[in-house]
TrEMBL record, chains A, B, C, D:
Name of the protein this chain belongs to: TetR/AcrR family transcriptional regulator
Keyword Transcription regulation on entry: yes
Record-annotated HTH tetR-type domain positions: 21-81
Key words, A-Z: DNA-binding, Transcription, Transcription regulation
Region span, Disordered: 1-21
DNA-binding region: 44-63
Length: 199, 199, 199, 199
DNA sequence: TCCTAAGCGAGACGGTACGTCTAGTCTTATT
DNA sequence: AATAAGACTAGACGTACCGTCTCGCTTAGGA
């Protein structure tokens, strides 16, 4: 991920023609669109170059693999599970179910599903960056979930033995796995919520 | 998967040289070994043919895609999460934790991890066969988990509101997702178990 | 040069799809035309494939380098100095001058010049095949010249000390060098002839 | 070849930073060494820049093509057939044979052969500058040969009908052609000498 | 002493071609 | 027919150069 840009900052030399920001954006946009249209597996450097109108070498110069392009898409915020804030109506049960519904609704959009699936493929593809990509994918709403679970726990809506961070991970994992890989409704997550929050 | 073989049975004509079973097995074995060694993404028809010593066309004749070869590997029982029976010592908490430990232990074997990851990639790759591949992957131990959860529930070790089938799905999903994609320890699953089974 | 075809003959197995003669010819024709149009240096596997309508790999399968394609063009007789028989009117002086004139006339055709220059470039380029290419280039008329010189010598029109084979080489070398590399009229060759044959 | 420098003289403005003579020399030296090591075909602007430590643009600024760099190498005297004076012992036959031996001996040095071959390639490559490059290559010893031949002719060691200039050209052409392109011993030239100078 | 013009190292950019690999399809002889 | 063999078109891979284009820095007059 822009390791070279980082190096530049280190040496603060800034020699030579500066990197073109517009080219960088057009590459990321082309990659995003191609993933949405045909999926991560079909994505190729060639196709990105053709679509974005740049030379193939320009992509190789900045990204070592498809997985790292996907990582940059995440950093750009162009590729995440939609940022769904967890509501707080006072009832943990109701709020988690509502959040779950919103997440699954947005995953019904083929483009969003394709982009998220790309993240999973990228992580599965490239074990060296798996944790990075995983953190990028789940990070944004992990914290929101943890906070909401902890608030519910302090009100006695979640038993003491439950670890909010672990539960948040399990909920996200279950949703993504069921929805994107199994291609099924994430009924399990909803049931888990009920099992956890039942009095 | 072997659609043509099926057609044969229908028309019961069976003219010409019969399909070679030994070739079929050597192809599947070659595919299995190549997945274990280099992963699903790197798997190619070419490499399978070379390794198994058959002609490339023979593979194309019987399998339309890499994903369907993986499906056959599952049918052959050469490619699944290891068949871990859920123990029953009387304590649901202890038994689930034990099962979880065994599963994660077997996933630490790189070959097993690669084969399982291949199933996930194949399902993610080929949406048309996603549910089939998903069922093949999780089927073997899904039922065992459901049974054990139901027994615990009847003994009051799991609250009434929890649906054993949904919980089984969530546990499996969480384990696979965390272990294979995130490349992390499936701490979440363990915590979920504690949260669910705490008195 | 068609080493693999030769191997085929050796093992006389002839398994698999046989090589397409029409493709082979279209490749050689495309190469010949491209050399005539743009020169040997500009010739590329890419361009040959595009022009002949074949896949690039097909060319790599049969020829390891541009130089060897040129060698095959020679074997095909599509690429030589034009086959000019040395006349025999009885006067060595007159006949050699006549032959020289015909050769230089045909080299004034840009296509012929380009093809012959390609042979020289190929030999200069690829030291490993230099002698082969040289023999291919000069072979066809070398013998004719030697014969004519020997006949003249036996009639006393060429001094005894002159070696016909060496003189033939020198004449050809001088013509090609002057015409193709220096881009000048091969006045030298004509003068050498006069010097040699003067009484 | 340094067209811009010439322009400078015309406008006698000479503003801005003057051309660096040290950079110019390091570029020519790098080109010379690379030709000696890997040949003219493999020579690239890129490699010259890397080896000489200058920017690529600096080379493009002053030379339009590889062939013109070679031309400058000749002007610098860094790239010619070795300057072999033609001896004069009184016997034309002996002297020419001696000269021929020296020339071929120096061409046995791979670096000298590579540099000379580069000149031929450059001339063959770039028809626009062919005569220039040819003149640069042969010029230095052409005159020496002509002089020696004329002296021999005046002593009756060479028949009257022979044109010294044309014979010099033929000798040089034969040597270069046989040695550098055919990769063979220039036996022909030696035989031509004997044929010409025999009583 | 500043200003302006040009040379220079560096390196990004759109390209073309390389040589290799794989995908699918096809055409042989053999089994 | 199925099989091994392998040629064929197609196209992606990652690399190397091409020729062009900015950049910041340097080095010289001339103002």
């Amino acid at each position: 991920m822009r390791v070279r840009t980082y190096t530049r900052h280190m040496t603060n030399a800034a020699r030579g023609r500066p990197r073109s920001e517009s080219v960088r954006r057009s590459i990321l946009e082309a990659a995003r669109d191609l993933i949405a249209e045909r999926g991560y597996q079909q994505l190729s450097f060639q196709a990105i170059a053709t679509r974005s109108g740049c030379g193939r070498q320009t992509i190789y110069r900045w990204w070592a693999s498809k997985a790292l392009i996907v990582a940059d898409l995440v950093l750009e915020g162009q590729l995440t599970l939609p940022q769904q804030p967890v509501p707080d109506t006072g009832s943990l049960d109701v709020d988690l179910t509502e959040w779950l519904e919103r997440i699954t609704a947005s995953l019904r959009d083929p483009a969003v599903a394709a982009l998220t699936r790309a993240l999973i493929s990228a992580a599965s593809d490239d074990q060296g960056h798996a944790q990075l990509l995983y953190a990028m994918t789940t990070g944004p709403y992990h914290q929101g979930l943890v906070d909401r679970l902890a608030r519910g726990q302090s009100l006695g809506q979640l038993r003491e033995a439950a670890d909010p961070a672990a539960l948040a991970d399990a909920l996200i994992g279950t949703v993504l796995f069921r929805t994107l890989i199994a291609g099924a409704q994430p009924a399990g997550a909803s049931a888990v919520i009920r099992a956890l929050t039942a009095p």
